[in-house]
Design goal:
Number of strands of chain C: 0
Radius of gyration of chain C: 20 Å
Distance between the termini of chain A: 51 Å
Distance between the termini of chain C: 29 Å
Largest sheet of chain C: none
Number of domains of chain C: 1
CATH superfamily of chain A: MetI-like
CATH architecture of chain A: Orthogonal Bundle
Strand content of chain C: under 5%
Order of helices and strands of chain A: HHHHHHHHH
Helix content of chain C: over 70%
Structural class of chain C: mainly alpha
Largest interface: A-C, 58 and 55 residues
Number of helices of chain A: 9
Oligomer: heterotrimer
CATH class of chain A: Mainly Alpha
Helix content of chain A: over 70%
Number of domains of chain A: 1
Shape of chain A: elongated
CATH topology of chain C: MetI-like fold
Order of helices and strands of chain C: HHHHHHHHHH
CATH architecture of chain C: Orthogonal Bundle
CATH class of chain C: Mainly Alpha
Number of helices of chain C: 10
Number of strands of chain A: 0
Chains: A mainly alpha, B alpha/beta, C mainly alpha
Radius of gyration of chain A: 21 Å
């Protein structure tokens, strides 16, 4: 039986991968950049929101309701709907950051809620100001929950950035799109594999941070 | 207590370091100065954009090519906003988009004049058209043609409700596509199966997932698969010469000279060959464009 | 009321008719394929998840399924399904949606069963109940909220991801979103997205209603009102949260 030579019709045409290394790496960089940037912005915006929401429950419920509804919006639609008012990169960033905020606010509030009341009372008794208590007591205890939320948001965003390729934001989704258009499996497989690998790598990296933050918590039961 | 404080600090250090990385990694949007040549979201447009873009570069005009920018409406918006400076277009399709269906005619010069005027109204400019044409067409397999007795678009009308059309999503509202077929010929398909132009449609036609395929007259797949291209007997499709269209940034005599030279060298046969290399042989538009320019002494 | 007014006119004009059916037809299609995919995912994922959770084995597998499931980019899975099945339309769409629906269902079911208080299991065994009886009478009812949360999360994600399937030749409500994208027609995009959101919310509320009906009063705890809430429980890091793709 004669084996078909490795070429354009194979699952991965290795020559193409070699020739297009620069493009592949560039797409990977674009992808990482958009993911990390949106998560970082999400953290910066979600933190004060969540802290306020945990203090005043009145804020929290409407935030949750709005957030839950926003969750059901298909990401492609969300990207496209902003386009009349923003540039394409801005639209992608805004949507990705918003999704991050939704996840993080919940996790931060839940984490803060998990601080035992007696610890807070003891701290108050010792004369801690609210700010000091937040920074020295509450946030450290909530940290594992917060990092867990960052993990979830990061992994999810890696997937969403592939969709952003449909509004021209490049990244690994551009390879997938090329594979779709030209019926060309090589960029498709490369793009898909790299995005899964990226998500898993970021997840494990952040898992390490989670352990750093709370090694006393047993992970698996 | 001390151990966990160290860990706590370490964690925050990692977080801060990551944020610093993020700021450093802050990608700026590509481009910058120079002419942005944008292509529509199908391979042939990418090829043409590369050809024109690289010719400009060779002629010492700073140009950036953006492939797969979007469909025609997105490109027009881009031209008006200045995000796009130049795009390869097709005389008839663009004219009908701007001025309404049936504006373009079977006469190239007439249509080009109408187009130039329509573009001027929008502060846009057209360069010289090429003789190369790419007409939108409908293709069926030999078997389907025999079964339903199809040779022309008019033959389709009575049986269209038994047939599925494979065409890009935007065909739903493109003047010469679904609306035009309905208004001019009374063709209403059973289903519009949304597929990207090119191989996805070719595969679907071969697999029997669709009966009628929206193709380009320059698609090599037509000859390769021995499909029947139906005749547009009532002239729904106007002339479709390739023509570069640009905004004010591109409106210089220097650029015009380079573009017109390229357009003059472009033929329908050449375009078909370039398409084949990109779509069937999976070569890059950038590479085949380079070859074309070198072969024609335009690089 | 300009833009919204346009959207409502569009909804009215396109409610029925048109090539391939109107909004009503596409919404129904969308619902059908989502339901089918979740059902298939249930058939595939529930038996192993229930078995492993009951036997308290395979924790590593559950964690990996959860991680990989979150990491799967829906756009890539869809196009891969296209290439692998070599078909367009319903087939690759269902394959991709099932693949995406499995992880939340599997993980939540497994975790739900494992979380059952060991003391309760022991007392049930002490009362003479056999393994399968403990499973059916005690563990499954107690795990039910988490299992339902997984189903609800899956369903919402499937409904949202199905909007991408227009790219592989399927129809559904994504048709309006993608045609609108190509034509720079935001009224259409918004209209399509609006119908999808309403559909997803109605389905989620419906499932919540089903959950309320099926859970015996004695076991009712503070039930999460939204699928998304149910999925994020930081005490169970393995529980799934997936965002609409």
């Amino acid at each position: 039986m004669i084996e078909a030579a490795n070429g354009p019709d194979s699952w991965i045409w290795w020559e193409w991968v070699g020739d297009h290394q620069d493009e592949i790496l560039s797409r990977l960089r674009e992808h990482i950049s958009l993911t990390v940037l949106s998560v970082a912005l999400g953290v910066l915006i979600a933190a004060p929101l969540a802290i306020a929401a945990s203090r005043r429950r009145v804020l929290y419920t409407p935030l949750l309701v709005v957030g839950s509804i926003l969750y059901t919006i298909p990401s492609l639609a969300a990207f496209v709907l902003l386009l009349p008012w923003t540039s394409r990169r801005e639209a992608a960033l805004i949507v990705l950051t918003s999704y991050t905020i939704l996840v993080l606010v919940r996790n931060i509030v839940t984490g803060l809620d998990g601080v035992p009341a007696d610890i807070k009372e003891a701290a108050q008794g010792m004369g801690y100001s609210p700010l000091r208590m937040l920074v020295r007591i509450e946030l450290p205890i909530a940290l594992p929950s917060i990092v867990a939320g960052i993990r979830i948001a990061t992994v999810t965003n890696v997937g969403l950035v592939t969709v952003a390729a449909l509004i021209g934001q490049g990244g690994l989704g551009a390879l997938i799109n090329d594979g779709l258009r030209r019926d060309f499996s090589t960029p498709l497989v490369v793009g898909a594999t790299l995005s899964v690998a990226l998500a898993v790598a970021l997840d494990f990296g952040l898992l390490g941070v989670q352990y750093l933050a709370a090694p006393w918590q047993r992970r698996s039961r | 207590m001390r151990g966990s404080r160290k860990r706590f600090k370490a964690t925050w250090l990692v977080v801060l370091a990551s944020l610093a990385l993020v700021v450093a990694a802050c990608d700026d949007d590509g481009g910058g100065g120079g002419i942005t040549v944008a292509a529509a979201n199908f391979p042939e447009s990418n090829i043409l954009a590369q050809v024109y873009g690289q010719a400009l570069e060779a002629g010492d005009v700073d140009a950036t090519v953006e492939e797969d920018f979007g469909a025609r409406p997105a490109l027009l918006d881009g031209l008006e906003s200045g995000d796009v400076d130049l795009t390869p277009e097709y005389v008839g399709a663009l004219l009908n988009e701007l001025e309404g269906p049936d504006t373009a005619t079977a006469d190239t010069q007439e249509s080009v004049d109408l187009l130039t005027a329509a573009l001027a109204d929008r502060d846009l400019v057209a360069f010289e058209p090429s003789e190369a044409q790419d007409v939108d067409a409908l293709a069926v397999t030999q078997d389907t043609a025999e079964e339903f007795g199809l040779a022309t678009y008019s033959d389709l009308a009575p049986v269209a409700d038994q047939l599925r059309l494979g065409a890009p999503p935007e065909c739903a509202e493109f003047p010469a596509c679904i609306p035009g077929l309905r208004d001019t010929y009374g063709i209403e398909f059973a289903e519009h199966v949304p597929l990207e132009a090119g191989p996805p449609i070719f595969e679907a036609l071969n697999n029997g997932d669709i009966e009628v395929a929206r193709v380009f007259s320059t698609d090599a797949a037509i000859a390769e698969n021995d499909w029947v291209v139906l005749e547009d007997d009532q002239g729904l499709n106007p002339v479709q010469n390739v023509i570069p269209v640009g905004g004010s940034e591109a409106d210089t005599s220097e650029i015009a000279e380079i573009l017109n030279e390229v357009s003059a060298a472009l033929t329908t046969e050449a375009l078909t060959e370039l398409n084949k290399r990109v779509v069937t042989d999976k070569e890059d538009p950038e590479d085949v464009a380079k070859d074309f320019l070198e072969e024609n002494d335009l690089a | 009321m300009g833009f919204l007014g346009d959207v409502f006119s569009w909804l009215g004009d396109n409610w029925s008719g048109g090539v391939g059916g109107g909004i009503d037809h596409r919404a129904f299609e969308h619902l059908q394929i989502s339901g089918l995919s979740v059902l298939i995912a249930l058939v595939i994922a529930l038996p192993p998840a229930v078995t492993l959770g009951h036997l308290r084995r395979g924790g590593a597998l559950a964690i990996n399924v959860a991680n990989i499931g979150r990491a799967l980019p829906s756009f890539a899975i869809l196009v891969l399904a296209l290439q692998i099945t070599n078909r367009i339309g319903v087939v690759p769409t269902v394959v991709a949606l099932v693949a995406l629906a499995i992880p939340p269902i599997f993980t939540n079911t497994y975790v739900g069963l494992r979380e059952v208080d060991p003391e309760i299991r022991e007392s049930a065994a002490g009362m003479g109940m056999r393994g399968t009886q403990v499973l059916a009478r005690i563990e499954l009812p107690m795990a039910f909220p988490l299992i339902m949360a997984g189903i609800r999360t899956s369903t919402v994600q499937v409904i949202a991801t199905a909007t991408l399937a227009t790219l592989v030749g399927w129809g559904g409500l994504g048709y309006y979103i993608i045609v609108g994208l190509r034509l720079n027609d935001n009224v259409q995009v918004f209209g399509g997205a609006l119908v999808v959101v309403v559909l997803a919310l109605l389905v989620d509320l419906g499932l919540a209603g089903v959950q309320r009906l099926l859970v015996p009063r004695g076991l009712r705890t503070a039930e999460p009102r939204w699928a998304v809430d149910a999925a994020i429980k930081t005490e169970e890091p393995e529980a799934e949260i997936v965002v609409a793709a």
